[in-house]
């Protein structure tokens, strides 16, 4: 119980500021973004989706706060493909995440580049597969009151719109906190009961190490700004397995799956939760076979 409370509390302290930032960002999108302009931005699906996938470079939110922002973008008229691309890629393409990866792996730029590229490829592929999908009606889940839709309305003053943004942020934070805390509790239990009992033998085979690392990342639910510092010291694992750990974690983990319930249908959640890890695993095997991480790049 002491270990559970310690892990749960540390996850909450680490993630809640980012969840708050994501809620504030989602509220600003709700109040200030004009749906017509957003639709115009994504009029060209390919360019719009690519821009959404790269949104993390200019919108640094980790996975703890990315779901409410993606949900608001979809609700304001962004296509499902763009929302998914942003949700999956932005937590990895966050400049602070890439910097932490560089520091944790002691200046190994190849790990930084590969982490970003793999995340981008997976996000774009999932966006392509879900391009014809439609999200469920988000209005009841997002706590939106159509009678008070102030999004992009020039007739309201700046002060009034900021007040409404604060109200939306509070609603968003409360709505997303419930699945986050549930997910954090489940993740803490898994880390105590399962991950803590896994012993990784030195020189474990790659074909076993990669899925093992991915499973641990999804169960541990570590914030993307800290996961590289957990993966880097695991020298008994090949670099491809450590790369898999820091790539899949920000895309699919326990706390995210519970937050997705407020955005996607159960069938969409299932497909995303299966297809994204399969794609990451395939790319990791390709990287391992190519030998790009071996030679002068290995730590």
Explain what the structure shows.
The protein has about 300 residues and is mostly helical. Helices cover about 70% and strands about 0% of the residues. It has helices at about 1-30, 35-40, 45-55, 65-75, 80-95, 95-105, 110-130, 140, 160-195, 205-220, 225-230, 240-250, 255-260, 265-290. Helix 1 packs parallel to helix 4 (about 65-75). The longest helix has about 35 residues, at about 160-195. It is globular and about 60 Å long. The two termini are about 35 Å apart.
- Write down how many β-strands occur, each being a DSSP E stretch of 2 or more residues: 0
| Rounded Rg | 19 Å
Structural class: mainly alpha
Number of helices: 14
The overall pLDDT, averaged over residues, is 76
What would you call the shape?
globular
How far the N terminus sits from the C terminus, by CA atoms, comes to 37 Å
Helix content: 55-70%
The main pleated sheet reads as:
none
Our estimate of the beta-strand percent is under 5%
Summarize this structure as a short list of keywords or feature phrases:
mainly alpha, 14 helices, 0% strand
List the helices and strands and how they pair.
Layout: H1 2-32, H2 35-41, H3 45-53, H4 66-75, H5 80-93, H6 95-104, H7 109-129, H8 139-142, H9 158-193, H10 206-220, H11 227-231, H12 239-248, H13 254-260, H14 266-290
Helix pairs in contact: 1-4, 1-9, 3-5, 4-5, 5-7, 6-7, 7-12, 7-14, 9-13, 10-12, 10-14, 12-14
């Amino acid at each position: 119980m002491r270990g559970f409370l310690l892990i749960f509390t540390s996850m909450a302290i680490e993630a809640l500021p980012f969840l708050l930032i994501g809620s504030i960002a989602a509220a600003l999108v709700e109040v200030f973004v004009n749906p017509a302009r957003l639709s115009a931005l994504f009029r060209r699906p390919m360019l719009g989706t690519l821009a959404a996938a790269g949104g993390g470079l200019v919108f640094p939110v980790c996975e703890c706060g990315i779901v409410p922002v993606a949900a608001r973008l979809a609700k304001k008229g962004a296509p499902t493909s763009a929302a998914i691309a942003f949700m999956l890629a932005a937590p990895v393409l966050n400049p602070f995440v890439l910097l932490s990866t560089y520091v944790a792996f002691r200046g190994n730029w190849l790990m930084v580049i590969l982490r970003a590229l793999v995340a981008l490829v997976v996000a774009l592929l999932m966006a392509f597969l879900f391009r014809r999908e439609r999200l469920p009606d988000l209005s009841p889940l997002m706590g939106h009151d159509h009678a008070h839709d102030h999004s992009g309305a020039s007739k309201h003053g700046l002060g009034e719109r900021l007040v409404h943004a604060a109200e939306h942020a509070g609603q968003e934070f409360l709505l997303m906190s419930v699945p986050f805390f549930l997910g954090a509790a489940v993740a803490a239990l898994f880390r105590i009961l399962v991950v803590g009992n896994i012993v990784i033998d030195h020189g474990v085979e790659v074909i076993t190490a990669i899925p093992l690392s991915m499973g641990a990342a999804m169960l541990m639910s570590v914030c993307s700004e800290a996961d590289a510092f957990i993966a880097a010291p695991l020298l008994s694992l090949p670099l491809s397995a450590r790369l898999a750990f820091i790539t899949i974690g920000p895309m699919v983990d326990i706390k995210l799956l519970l937050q997705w319930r407020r955005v996607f249908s159960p069938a969409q959640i299932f497909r995303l939760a299966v297809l994204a890890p399969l794609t990451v695993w395939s790319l990791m095997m390709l990287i391992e076979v190519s030998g790009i991480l071996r030679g002068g790049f290995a730590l």
